[in-house]
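User: Hi! I have a protein structure encoded as tokens and I'd like to know what sequence might fold into it. I'm fairly new to this, so please keep things simple.
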């Protein structure tokens, strides 16, 4: 690990100011950043700790949406009665992230800002057409995820909350990598006010929508309709955990399972 300066922010404004003055990184739960720093894959000049900012924590229902603070842990999302009642698929997704230690330290905002290609939360954000709130603006899910570990966030921009519209029905199914429990492929299917949305994580460089499956489900919302869609393998990941062709097959299979599991 390289040397760095540590600053514990007392407010979002203080954290943003610290980030704007240095080559810094915001620290939420630390499950991604600390590991990267240990491996010398990240070398921030300053680490700005957000954990003391109370306004970034909590879950509440606002109209037809569930609003979750950026520093809310995976375990808190999984156990939230508001989330379980309104979007049970989101609570189940959070319960399946990593292990108990990760769920009790990792945060929603940290996961989204890191945008790991195989992370679970990006699939929920994209699948539910959520809105990412920052200290500067609101970003639609379709505009937030830009590439591998890349988002629309500016250098001094901090996620403050995420607003998840309550869907008619939704489900998330993933094929986990056994050691890390990251998604080899994960598929989130939702029936939203704007139509069917299908978000895929783990299969490519970053989370994306499976438009072909969305079109098939718009015509016939059945598991068979999803399973019969042939996904091109050309742009999918190909590594020791699974070939691009295998991942392409999994996308359709898991989409079908998600449809069958929806409630």
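Assistant: Happy to help. Inverse folding works backwards from shape to sequence: for each of the 263 positions I chose a residue that suits the local structure. Here it is:
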């Amino acid at each position: 690990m390289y040397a760095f300066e540590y600053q514990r922010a007392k407010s979002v404004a203080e954290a943003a100011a610290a980030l704007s003055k240095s080559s810094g990184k915001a620290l939420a739960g630390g499950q991604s950043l600390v590991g990267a720093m240990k491996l010398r894959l990240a070398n921030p000049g300053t680490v700005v700790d957000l954990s003391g900012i109370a306004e970034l924590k909590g879950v509440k229902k606002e109209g037809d949406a569930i609003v979750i603070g950026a520093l809310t842990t995976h375990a808190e999302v999984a156990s939230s009665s508001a989330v379980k009642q309104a979007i049970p698929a989101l609570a189940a997704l959070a319960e399946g992230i990593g292990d108990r230690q990760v769920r009790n330290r990792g945060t929603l905002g940290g996961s989204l800002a890191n945008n790991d290609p195989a992370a679970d939360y990006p699939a929920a954000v994209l699948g539910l057409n959520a809105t990412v709130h920052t200290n500067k603006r609101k970003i639609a899910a379709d505009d937030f995820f830009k590439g591998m570990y890349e988002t629309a966030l500016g250098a001094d921009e901090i996620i403050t909350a995420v607003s998840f519209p309550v869907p008619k029905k939704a489900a998330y199914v993933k094929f986990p990598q056994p050691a890390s429990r990251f998604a080899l492929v994960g598929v989130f299917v939702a029936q939203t006010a704007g139509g069917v949305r299908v978000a895929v994580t783990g299969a490519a460089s970053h989370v994306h929508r499976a438009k072909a499956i969305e079109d098939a489900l718009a015509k016939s919302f059945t598991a068979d309709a999803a399973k019969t869609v042939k996904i091109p393998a050309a742009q999918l990941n190909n590594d020791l955990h699974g070939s691009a062709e295998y991942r392409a097959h999994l996308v359709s299979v898991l989409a079908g399972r998600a449809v069958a599991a929806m409630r």
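A useful reference point when you look it over: The CA atoms of residues 28 and 51 lie 6 Å apart. Feel free to ask if any position seems puzzling.
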